[in-house]
Design brief:
Helix content: 40-55%
Oligomer: single chain
CATH superfamily: Vaccinia Virus protein VP39
CATH class: Alpha Beta
Distance between the termini: 24 Å
Strand content: 15-25%
Radius of gyration: 16 Å
Strand order of the largest sheet: 3-2-1-4-5-7-6
Shape: globular
Number of strands: 7
Largest sheet: 7 strands, mixed
Number of domains: 1
CATH architecture: 3-Layer(aba) Sandwich
CATH topology: Rossmann fold
Length: about 210
């Protein structure tokens, strides 16, 4: 994927960073908050955790107490929101500006890698997923909460039709075939749970 696409993604999220929480507020109340809690209840506080695409830090309130955590995001604007939220919550978490396609960590560093609603916007999702695989320990886990293109033909085609507009507005691809991308990246899916029909899934994978 070109550098231009990465810069476009950064610029889109910088542009909406100040209103991002407001945009997602209805979905956060209805669905996202309980899904976030469900994901982080799966994590042992003794694990070394990496969160990729922390955004404004909406997952921070669900981190297990005392966990050794690192979190990254591609957008300076979004990361400022996460830094502010971490201070309010009095959390000691390392927050860094970084691209998911080029993680600046050594191989096999983390016990668990998580991402929530991230791989709809990474320009090259397979490359990003391979980076998650690289930095995750061989016996570790990669836990994803993702929305994706539905399999049902009429709704799937509608998602395809709307996708160019949504990408221009928010940088989000609503028709990504994320399960296929995970498999192409070389990760092994251990668990795939439908949370909202087949549009939103909780996925647990491991390095091959």
């Amino acid at each position: 994927m070109s550098i231009d696409e990465t810069l476009k993604t950064r610029m889109r999220y910088n542009r909406i960073s100040s209103i991002f929480d407001l945009i997602e507020f209805p979905m956060e109340i209805l669905f996202f908050s309980r899904w976030r809690r469900r994901l982080f209840n799966m994590i042992d506080p003794k694990e070394r955790l990496l969160e990729v695409g922390i955004g404004t830090g909406k997952n921070l309130g669900y981190y297990p107490p005392g966990i050794d955590a690192m979190a990254i995001d591609i957008s300076e604007g979004m990361l400022r929101g996460a830094i502010k939220r971490a201070r309010i919550l009095n959390l000691k978490v390392s927050l860094k500006l970084m691209d998911a396609e080029h993680l600046e960590f050594e191989d096999r560093r983390f016990d668990t890698v998580v991402a929530t609603f991230v791989f709809c916007s990474v320009p090259d999702p397979i490359k990003g997923l391979r980076e998650l695989k690289r930095v995750c320990k061989r016996q570790g886990r990669i836990i994803l909460l993702e929305h994706m293109r539905p399999n049902r033909i009429p709704i799937g085609r509608l998602f395809d039709l709307l996708n160019p507009l949504i990408v221009r507005m928010m940088g989000v691809n609503i028709n990504r075939r994320t399960i296929e991308n995970i498999k192409k990246s070389g990760l092994v899916i251990e668990r795939e749970e439908d949370l909202l029909s087949d549009i939103v899934k909780l996925i647990v994978a491991r390095p091959a």
